UniProtKB/TrEMBL annotation:
CDD domains: NAT_SF. This is GNAT family N-acetyltransferase. Residues 6-148 form the N-acetyltransferase domain. SUPFAM superfamilies: Acyl-CoA N-acyltransferases (Nat). Its EC number is 2.3.1.-. Gene3D superfamilies: 3.40.630.30. The lineage of its organism: Bacteria, Bacillati, Bacillota, Bacilli, Bacillales. Keywords: Acyltransferase, Transferase. One of its GO terms (molecular function) is acyltransferase activity. It is an enzyme of class 2 (transferase). It comes from Alkalicoccobacillus gibsonii. InterPro entries: Acyl_CoA_acyltransferase, GNAT_dom.
Amino acid sequence: MNWKIKSFEELSTSELYTILQARVDVFVVEQNCAYEEVDGNDMEAIHVAGYVGDKLAAYCRLFMPSAKREHASIGRVLVTKEFRGTSCGKELMTQAIDTLEVEYKQKSIQIQAQYYLDRFYRSFGFEPISEVYLLDEIDHVDMVRVKGE
C-alpha cells in the first residue's frame, strides 16, 4: 500500500474530495447515520491515506493533544468496501500509531471506537477508559494506548 500523510493544506482538491467521499460513503450511507460528517476539524488534522494503485483503500485522521484533548487521537478510521478483509485496516492502524509515536513523539493515543471493533483495537494495545455509550445510534467506547505498556 502506498501511504500519503499530509496536513489539510498539503491535500490536493482531488485527494480531499476522495477522502470526504469515502467518509460519507462509510459513516453516513453504509451506517445509515445522518450526522455532520464534515465537522470543521479537518483543517487541524493530519490525514493518513493508503492507496492501492490509484484507489483509496484506507484512511484516518490524526490529532495532536490540545486544549480540547488530553491525548493524541486517531479518528475517522475506515477501509473502503472494496478493500475490506485484505488487512488494510491493520496496516492503517500500524501506520497511524507509528506516525504519532515515531514522527510526532506522542506517548498516549486515544480513540473513540465503535464497540464492535473492541477486540481489533485491543490487538494494538488500546484499553477501554469508558463504559460503552451510544453515539449516533452506534455503540462506542473510548480507548487509550500508552506507549510502552
